[in-house]
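=== RUN LOG ===
request id: a7f3
mode: sequence -> structure
chains: 1
length: 220
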Amino acid sequence: MAKAKNGIFGSFSGKVGNIVGSMWKSISTIRKAPKKKTKKEKARKPRTEAQLAATERFVFVSKWLVPFHEFINVGFLNIADNQTEINLCHSETMKNAITGVYQNLGIDYSKVIISKGKLAPLEELTVTLTEPNTVELNWKMSYPGGAKFNDQLMLAIYCPEFHETEGFIGGITRARQKCSFTFRNRLIGKELHVYVGVTAMNRKKIANSVYLGTLKPSVD
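=== RESULT ===
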């Protein structure tokens, strides 16, 4: 049964015959209900290699992005008007950061972005390993193009071996010019990839994230 929330001329949710109405991100949508396939139709054609390859790429990126979800939900907040932040980042990653071919896919870490927007990024940004489990970020004090002293940093450190991230969102301002972050000891000696983004205090402006390369901490 469908419900018309704003009268017969407004949006509706539910099913009427073979028409389905729904609301998503304040957008009213109407679509035709999918036709159920018979067992003969399902078994009629095997999937092509191209279809299998497309599915593998989609699933590969979906799984790879999972540790970054909390960062992506902030980093793509202002441009995900008609889709979720995760879906938008998924599309960007599919388009720009996949390497390899079917059954042998990989990621170009330098082309991954976890935030996207028009806010000015930090200038002359560097990362240094100061202790086996501590990184230090340094950057130049500057406020180009609407940037403000209280813009907030976003740091994501990714470990391929454990497929997990560490870091923070907010708490460190652009005006600080430096910060240190201590990660868990289990990451000492592992290959780590570092991403830094910036958001306005009110999240209304966001900068493109910057890839700072690979850290390979040594075990004492």
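=== NOTES ===
The longest strand covers residues 164-173.
The chain has a mean pLDDT of 87.
=== END ===
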